[in-house]
């Protein structure tokens, strides 16, 4: 079940094509957790060069996808509504398996700490129920300077 579609996501976060990676949000508990989905398709531009003949999703883009899901969670939290979240740090990132075209990434994010202008989340990306990446992400939250 989708609780947020692509347009609702773009209304909340500033990312746009070609770097808006969240297709939809499956479930969200503002201030607590989110599950979101990214469909990995062969027509994504990065597959042309990474790696020709053996396409895999770059680890940095898996982290970016997790960060986008986390920013949705953070910006849906009551204390951060109407603000913008910026990735501040990535800790303990681990990659367990490759992500290929045709995979469906399920992104699971849990808020672990919140302060006045920051948040820390634990993240996991899964394909077919198996973890492909985990990381702790820290966000800095600021007032939005322009309308999205």
TrEMBL record:
Similarity field: Belongs to the thioester dehydratase family. FabZ subfamily.
Enzyme Commission code: 4.2.1.59
Pfam families hit by this protein: FabA
Catalysed reactions, semicolon-separated: a (3R)-hydroxyacyl-[ACP] = a (2E)-enoyl-[ACP] + H2O
Lineage, broadest ranks: Bacteria, Bacillati, Bacillota, Bacilli, Lactobacillales
Name of the gene this protein is made from: fabZ
Family annotation (HAMAP family): FabZ
Keyword Lipid biosynthesis attached: yes
BP GO terms, sorted: fatty acid biosynthetic process; lipid A biosynthetic process
Main location, first listed in the record: cytoplasm
GO cellular component: cytoplasm; membrane
Gene Ontology MF terms: (3R)-hydroxyacyl-[acyl-carrier-protein] dehydratase activity
Organism field: Ligilactobacillus ubinensis
Protein name as catalogued: 3-hydroxyacyl-[acyl-carrier-protein] dehydratase FabZ
Subcellular location: Cytoplasm
Tree of life domain: Bacteria
Function in brief: Involved in unsaturated fatty acids biosynthesis. Catalyzes the dehydration of short chain beta-hydroxyacyl-ACPs and long chain saturated and unsaturated beta-hydroxyacyl-ACPs.
Entry annotated with the keyword Cytoplasm: yes
Keywords for the protein's UniProt record, in alphabetical order: Cytoplasm, Lipid A biosynthesis, Lipid biosynthesis, Lipid metabolism, Lyase
